[in-house]
Amino acid sequence: MSVITIERKVLEKNDQIAAENRSLFARHGVFVINMVSSPGAGKTSILEQTLGRIGISVSAAVIEGDVQTDLDAQRVAKYNVPAVQIVTAGGCHLEANLVRDALTRIDLSKIRLLVIENVGNLVCPSNYDLGEAMKVVVAATTEGDDKPLKYPGMFRNATVLVINKIDLLPYIPCDLGRLKENALKINPSLKVFETSCTTGAGIASWCDWLTDQANAVHRP
Amino acid sequence: MHELSIAQSILDIVCRHLPKGADARVKTIRLTIGEMAGVVTDSLTFCFSAISEGTPAQGAALEIVHVPLTVRCRACGRDSAITPEAFICPACGGRELMVTGGRELLVKEIELHENGASP
């Protein structure tokens, strides 16, 4: 019987490219977030609100990941930021090599903030490091207050939770307190923001925090 | 369905470790998969059998050791197995937990068919 010991991480190649991306970001002093959520939670809307507000203080760029179309890149390009669309053509998540390839089309020396908007999916993107500083998970109130319990992997791996569509709370059976409590049960160190892209509620404090994070990154 | 991409990574790793020049064929692939690794075993097995066709790993069995989610409490220091629905120390109720097991996604080893043996 011939047995060969291997002992290798299945995602070692992705992790290695992610580490290369991360050191590239560090060399240019760019703060990078990986935005994740289920489809339709409002990642792109939050991004539009964010770019509209922080444009003056922080120069940003965006990488959009979608299964098809460049509609999201078109949406964010209106805010005069470099926007690169990755079309995964069926792929349910972004991988580090796709981000690395997209980076060839962004001048990192000209930006302080890079937002990677992942494919809408609360499962698959969870375990793929892209080289980001942190994952920001968006959960919409319309998804119900039990989302964190159903997708613990993503909420555990995220640093920030943005609860979006809070303007709809009066009309739907979602308990905001329970949603936060469930999320903190999975990850007690989550930083939580509550936003509405319709009324603009909470966008300012999210943008202030994001600006502070970007400005805190050491600029070589 | 990221299991397809995981299956591809496993196949790449296995093929890279096959003895050079020999007509090796893989009989068994032993994997360690944690509860929090986010992998659906049935999907993985299905995807692997599809993409390994025509490779030295065609027909190889995936033997999977599942690792439960375990944590160490920063408050009381106790090690516990928990379910992923609540990261709370069963001993003291502490919330600051360090994950000590359950994130694994490893190719441990492979077993080859004996020379000349049919698969």
Overall 3D geometry of chain A? Answer: globular
The residue fraction in helices of chain B comes out at 10-25%
Strand content of chain A: 15-25%
Strand content of chain B: 25-35%
Largest sheet of chain A: 7 strands, parallel
Low-confidence stretches of chain B: none
Shape designation of chain B: elongated
- Helix residue percentage of chain A: 25-40%
Total strands of chain B: the figure is: 6
Any overview of this molecule?
Chain A is an alpha/beta fold and 220 residues long. In chain A, strand 3, helix 3 and strand 4 form a beta-alpha-beta unit. Chain B is of the alpha+beta class and 119 residues long. Chain B is built from two helices and six strands, in the order H-E-H-E-E-E-E-E. In chain B, strands 2-1-6 form a three-stranded mixed sheet, with helices on one face. Chain B has a three-stranded antiparallel sheet with strand order 4-3-5, with no helix packed on it. In chain B, helix 1 crosses helix 2. The chains are: A alpha/beta (220), B alpha+beta (119). Chains A and B meet through strand 1, helix 1, helix 6 and helix 7 of A and helix 1 and strand 6 of B.
Q: Which helices and strands occur, and which strands form pairs?
A:
The complex is a heterodimer of chains A (about 220) and B (about 120).
Chain A: E1 2-9, H1 12-28, E2 31-37, H2 43-54, E3 60-66, H3 71-77, E4 83-87, H4 96-103, E5 113-117, E6 134-140, H5 147-150, H6 152-157, E7 160-164, H7 176-186, E8 191-194, H8 203-216
Parallel strand pairs in A: 2-5, 2-6, 3-4, 3-5, 6-7, 7-8
Chain B: H1 3-16, E1 26-34, H2 41-51, E2 61-67, E3 70-73, E4 79-81, E5 97-101, E6 105-112
Parallel strand pairs in B: 1-2
Antiparallel strand pairs in B: 1-6, 3-4, 3-5
